Structure formats: structure tokens, C-alpha cells
Amino acid sequence: MEVFKCLVAQSGYFAGPVFPVRTVTKITEYTELSPAEEKAKFRDACRKIIGQIKSKQYSEKNQEINNTVTDILQDDAFVSRVEEKLNIPGCAASRAVSQAAESLCTALGEVKNEYIRSRQDDIRGVAVRLIGMLEGIADSPENCSAITAEEISPALISLIDNQLIGAMLTDKGSPNSHASIIAGNLGIPYLYGSAEAVKAAEKAEFIIIDSETADVILDPPERERAEAEVRMEKVLAERESRLQEEMNFTATCKTKIYANIAGPEDLDGLLKSGADGVGLFRTEFLFLNTEEAPSEETQYRIYSKVLEAMGDKVVIIRTMDIGSDKKAPWLKLPDENNPALGLRGTRVSLEYKDIFRTQLRALLRAAPGGNLKIMFSMISSQWEVDEIKERIDEVAEELEQEGKNYKVPEIGIMVETPAAAMCAAELAKSVAFFSIGTNDLTQYTLALDRESRGLDRYFNPHHEAVFRMIALTAKGGHENGIETGVCGQLGADPEAVKRLIKDGVDELSVPIKKVRATRILAAKAEKELSEETFAVADSACEAGDSMISLTAAADGELFSMEEIPDPVFSSGSMGKCIGILPDNGNIYAPINGKVVTVAETHHAVVIEGEGGRQILVHVGINTVKLGAKAFTLHVEKGSLVEANTLLMETDLEMIKDAGLSTMVIVVVLNSP
Ligand code: PEP
Ligand code: MG
Fold first, then answer.
1. Which of these, 255, 257, 281, lies nearest to 267 by C-alpha position?
2. For helices 60-74 and 76-86, what crossing angle results, to 10°?
3. Strand partners, 169
4. Which listed residue (46, 178, 478, 602) is catalytic?
5. From the CA of 327, how far away is ligand 2's center (Å)?
6. Active site annotation includes 178
7. CA of 437 to the centre of ligand 1 (A)
8. Among 344, 414, 434, 439, which is best to mutate for testing ligand 1, by the most ligand atoms less than 8 A from CB?
9. Which of 416, 435, 441, 473 to mutate to test the pocket of ligand 1 (most atoms within 8 A of CB)?
10. E strands of 193-247, at which residues?
11. Which-ligand-closest: CA of 442?
12. Is the pLDDT reported for residue 525 higher than 60?
């Protein structure tokens, strides 16, 4: 038995087999062998994979996948295409497989039948497996295993059947790397930081990965191994019961809970997750494991597939965020000392115009098929937004002239740089939404490369500066009538959700597996916040003195603050207020703004107006006791209202019958 101390990137426990991966970093393109010899290599690889599949017992789901693999490897349409390419002298089998798979996928993409079209992903999967075999690299573990490697890239993870990844162990890594985020998305424990552990794991049969102790234990004695297996079973059972609990949770929340996806392979999970939409489709994953940038047709089909599956739900597609740790083999970016501060994200798109144009064409063409919005990463200046818009206009013009069906979707930006957060109020004027990438916002706010090693304690997404950037962004957005989402890891963080909602975040986009848990967190946070808002009078705050003009929230007799028969209000501790004894039950907005809070019991609404000033309209005194019965709301959280918009209708008789005062109190809330 060997034990190694590691660092924790993603928490969890795993006990089971080890699978050391070696990666195909480069496909062999040219060969000295004759076409006949390359064909023999290809057929041999097909036979070996079929043999591997036949010799093993698989779960029902994996058996289904493997039947598809076998079918494709024996399918004439695929095999003859590869062999045709291999007739060209010098063409290596790996290259032939990759090209044949792509051309077959393109051909299938033209077919109307959805089932046949969906086989494209299967074919690509088979090609990856074949290439692994041809390059002498095992493709994927046979059973759910801990995969180990010096370093694991996002591209590598996407090459392996994710069902078979039970845990990850690397030497190089960081909790904030994209590989780690994907592991988190998949609910996979991930330890890193020990070259010795990775090396020793190569020869081990059984591994225990325990994030609680940060230990990696290799080949424990029989008794420990049996105990670990029992614990693993418990972990799986607990996971199952937590999932069941999440499925049974019915409370709703006002905050929209969206999901992050990386491609159409996530659709199954996405549809089951109950997400209100897709808040981040990281399209760069379509660009990473390819020999060349995916064609307009390929992209169009992928985007259309996701849009079609989501129906009228929002799908926010982010244009490719390549660069830094997400490298596309076909795109030679310049060597930089610090690529995180260099050419990445939208900067790449703006510099490599043709690739951007192709992606925009595919997106605009796919847009009529669903509720698409597009967003752009790494924005720091207004001119970038202007240039993006120019590119979109050009593409729209082109499509118009070609007579193609297209639509220009709403565009939004990711707020990932302090520059964008600081200028949110201005940027909000030219975009339809914000989505805060807290992973990058943390790295750029704290001046710490998220890939850097050994500096984890400096990378703190809960840093007050990060939260202030978020609040500033949401405020800038609300002042201009646009919504703000969070699509970085912080959005699903149990320690952060309440603060995010309090600071004005309207939408959380989280890993598919965390959608239900986040909805529970958000529902609880909203409930607590609404209780706190109306209990805030208990704490003494200074009354604001600024002048503000309000439209009457109700028709009736006006009372000064001191005359309100409730010390909560008459003391002024919540802020300056007035009372109106209403003639009828119609309650109106006293200012233009956005509804930022609605009490769960519907008796109170907070509107945020210009300059972030918040006005509370509180109907009746102690009416919280009535539950929502006496109030019919005409607005909801997020509604944009003008002064005099009807907020709610109130059953004044019911309030009086309960022996309570019907006085409507309008409070200019103190700034927090
Ligand atoms: C982020 O930076 O928070 C984000 C969502 O983008 P990515 O993690 O893909 O860089
Ligand atoms: Mg980012």
C-alpha cells in the first residue's frame, strides 16, 4: 500500500480501479507504409475494438453505447469511406479515420431524419476511439475508474465516456482550471499536485481518492480495500437519495436557474435537470478536438439541435472562448508569457475574422429555430462590443443577400474583467443582458492566473472585491433595465447564492448536476431575504436625507412618518416613509424602476429606481400574517414598472376583518 498527500480540486470520494491515460496530442497524418499496410492497420484496430467489447460484460447503458460502436465499425458507409482515403499513398490510417468520420457526419447532417442525424456524435466517438487505438493509446477505461495523468485537459475529458470517469488524479492542476470545472460539473472528485502519486498509480490496481483527507491510497491491504468498497457503495447510495430528494423538491424560486453545457451530448442530462434554460453553452469544446475549425454546417446543426430540444426556453450560446488553457490544435496562437492576459476569448474572435464570421453565420442561421441569445467572453471595452455588432450586421447582410433564413438574436456580454464590471452601467446601454463569469472575474480581480500552481489560497472567489464587482454589475444592469446572470462556479456555491441574489443577480447558470440543488438554495435564500427585508426595522440604521419625489402609491389620506401606527416605520429606522390610508385596494408604483423584491406573502414590493434608490411599498400593518390571501400581484420580481403602474390589488375588507390597519407605507429604504 502507498499513501500520497495531494491537493483538492473537487471534493468527493472514490474507491475502484485506476486508469492511467496517455493522450493523443497529435494525429499521425503521413505514413511511409503502403496503402495496403495502412488498411490492414485500420482493419486490425476495428477488430481489436470489437473484440474488446465482446469480451466484456457491460451495464445496459454502456452495452447500448457499445452496440452502436460495433455497428459503426462494421458499417460499410464508414469503412469504405476510410478505405477510400487510404488509397491515397502516404495517408495515415488516423488521418483517414478522422476525415472519413467528418465527411460522413456532414453527409448525415443533410438528412432530415432526427435519429440518423443524431448518429453524428456516435460516429465522432468511434473515430476518437479508433484513433486512440491506432496511435497505440488506450481510449477509455472499461469500467468506471479514476483516470490519472500528469495533466488532464478539457479536451482529454471530452474524449472519454464521462460515465466511466469516477475520479481524476493529476500532477499539474488547479481547482479553478477548466478541467477542474468540468470535473465539478460531472460530480467527479479530483485531486492533484503529486507527481509521485500519478507515477505510482500507473502500476496500481486499486485506488482510493478521498478529498476529506486529501489522500490518495494505492493498493490497500484486503481489509482496507473491502472497507473502501463498502464506503463507495454508501457514497453512491447517498448520491442517489440526494438526487431523489432534489427531484421531489417542489418549491419554486424567482431567480432563474439555467444550466451550463458544452455540447449536444449534454442534452439528455439538460432536459432531465429541470433547468429554466441554458445560461452558458461553451462552444469552444466544439473546436478543441478537431483537425480544423468546425464548418458552418456542422456548427449550424449543433446549435439547431440544442435550440430545438429546448423549445421556447432561453439558450445562451457563448462564442468560442479559445486561448489560455483551451487550445485548439488547428489554431496556432502566438506564444505568450501569460496567455491568460493575452489573446483569448472574444479577442481571438475579433482577430481571426473568418472563424468568427463562420460561427456568427451558423448562429444567426440557427436563431429562428429557438430562443437564442449570444454572448461574448472577456469583454473589457465598449469598442469591442461595437466591433462585435458590426460583425453581426455584416453577417446578417450577407445572409440577407443570399436569401437565407436567419435572425439576429439578442446579444449580451460576459462580465469577466474588472473593466467591464466598473463600466457596467455604460456597457448595459448597448447589450441585452450580462452574464458574470466569476471564474475569470476572480482571476482578473485578484491578479492571479487561475491555472497557477501552489497559490490556491490566494484564489478566493468569495473575496469582497469580487462580490462588489458583481453587485456593481447587477446595479448597472438594473439601472438600464437589463438582467444579470452568474455562470461561473460561484453561481452554484452554497456559501454564495444568497449574497448573489441579495446583490441583484437575476439568474444563476450552473452545471447540469447542480441545477436542482441550486434551485433549492435559491428558494431558501429568497425566503430568508424577504423575511430580512421586512425585519430590517429591528436594526437601527440612519435615515436617508436625500430629496426624492414619489407618485402616490394609493388614493387616500396622507400621513407623516411619525403618524404611522407602527414603530417599525414611524421610527424612520428603515428609511424615511409616508403612510396612505387607502380609499380602495389598488396599489401603484411610486417611481419608475424595476421590482427587485416581492415578499413571499405578496404584501410588500421593493422597486429599485434611478441611482439604485430602493422604495418599499408595504401594504397594511402586520399583514404578513394574512399570507398571500389578501393580495393579487400584477408584477413579479424583475418586472420593469413606471410610476403609477398597478402593482397589486388588495382586499381591504379582509385586512380590516383581521383587525389590522390597511395603511400603505412607502419607505425610501436606507442604502445598505
Ligand atoms: C467564468 O469565467 O466564470 C466562465 C463561466 O467562463 P469559463 O470558466 O469557461 O472561462
Ligand atoms: Mg471565463
1. 281
2. 50
3. 148, 191
4. 178
5. 14
6. yes
7. 5
8. 439
9. 416
10. 206-210, 215-218
11. 1
12. yes
Give the whole-angstrom CA distance, residue 409 versus residue 430. 14
CA 295 to chain centre: 25
**Whole-number pLDDT of residue 450:** 84
Question: In 67-159, at which residue ranges do the beta strands (DSSP E only) sit?
Answer: 145-149
Residue 405 burial by CB count (10 A; 0-12/13-18/19+): exposed, middle or buried? exposed
Residues 6+ apart with CB under 8 A from 251: 520, 523
Residue 360 CA to ligand 1 center (angstroms) comes to 20
**C-alpha 191, offset from chain centre:** 22
- Reported as a single tens digit per residue, the pLDDT across 552-562 is 899 888 888 88
503 φ/ψ angles, rounded to the nearest 5 degrees: -80, 5
Is residue 247 within 8 Å of residue 254, measured between CB atoms?
A: no
Return the C-alpha cell found at 634.
400584477
Ligand 1: which residues within 6 Å by Cβ?
A: 181, 280, 282, 321, 416, 437-440, 487-488
Please say whether the beta carbons of 583 and 556 come within 8 A: yes
Give the pLDDT confidence score for residue 288 in this predicted structure: 78
Cα–Cα nearest to 115, from 59, 68, 58, 164? 68
- Taking alpha carbons only, the member of 121, 120, 126, 115 closest to residue 72 is 126
pLDDT level of residue 206 (50, 70, 90 thresholds): very high
Least confident window among 27-36, 140-149, 568-577: 568-577
Instruction: Look at residues 410, 584, 435, 403 and name the one whose alpha carbon lies nearest to residue 500.
Output: 435
Spatial separation of the C-alpha atoms in residues 304 and 233, rounded to whole Å = 40
643 burial type by CB count under 10 A (0-12 exposed, 13-18 middle, 19+ buried): middle
Range with the largest mean pLDDT of 24-38, 54-68, 273-287, 326-340: 273-287
Cβ atoms of 580 and 559 closer than 8 Å: yes
Average pLDDT over residues 269-274: 92
Please say whether the beta carbons of 211 and 189 come within 8 A. Answer: yes
Please count the CA atoms within 13 angstroms of the CA of 380 that sit on its side-chain side.
14
Query: Could you confirm whether 603 is annotated as catalytic?
Result: no
Do residues 156 and 21 make contact, with C-beta atoms less than 8 angstroms apart? Answer: yes
Report the nearest atom of ligand 1 relative to the CA of 488. 3
Grid cell for residue 321:
472562448
CB 175 within 8 A of CB 10: yes
Which among 245, 390, 360, 243 has a CA at the least distance from the CA of 293? 360
Give the span between the Cα atoms of 124 and 275, in whole angstroms: 27
Q: What is the mean pLDDT of the chain?
A: 87
Percentage of the chain beyond pLDDT 70 is: 90
Global pTM reads: 0.61
User: How far are the Cα atoms of 36, 65, 126, 127 from residue 69, in angstroms, in the given order?
Assistant: 24, 6, 6, 10
Q: Is residue 60 scored above 60 in pLDDT?
A: no
For residues 416 and 486, the answer to whether their CB atoms sit within 8 Å is no
C-alpha cell at 145: 475508474
- Rounded Cα distance, 103 and 97, in Å: 10
| % of the chain surpassing 90 pLDDT | 55
* CB contact at 8 A, 109 and 117: yes
| Amino acid letter, residue 575 | G
Residues 275-323: pLDDT tens digits? Answer: 999 999 999 988 876 778 899 999 999 999 999 999 999 999 999 999 8
Q: How far apart are the CA of 370 and the centre of ligand 1, in A?
A: 24
Q: What is the pLDDT of residues 320-373, one digit of tens each?
A: 999 887 878 788 888 888 889 999 999 999 999 999 999 999 999 999 999 999
* Position in ligand 1 atom list of the atom nearest CA 438: 3
Q: Which is the catalytic residue, given 144, 253, 423, 487?
A: 487
102-120 average pLDDT score: 70
| Distance between Cα 464 and ligand 2 center (Å) | 19
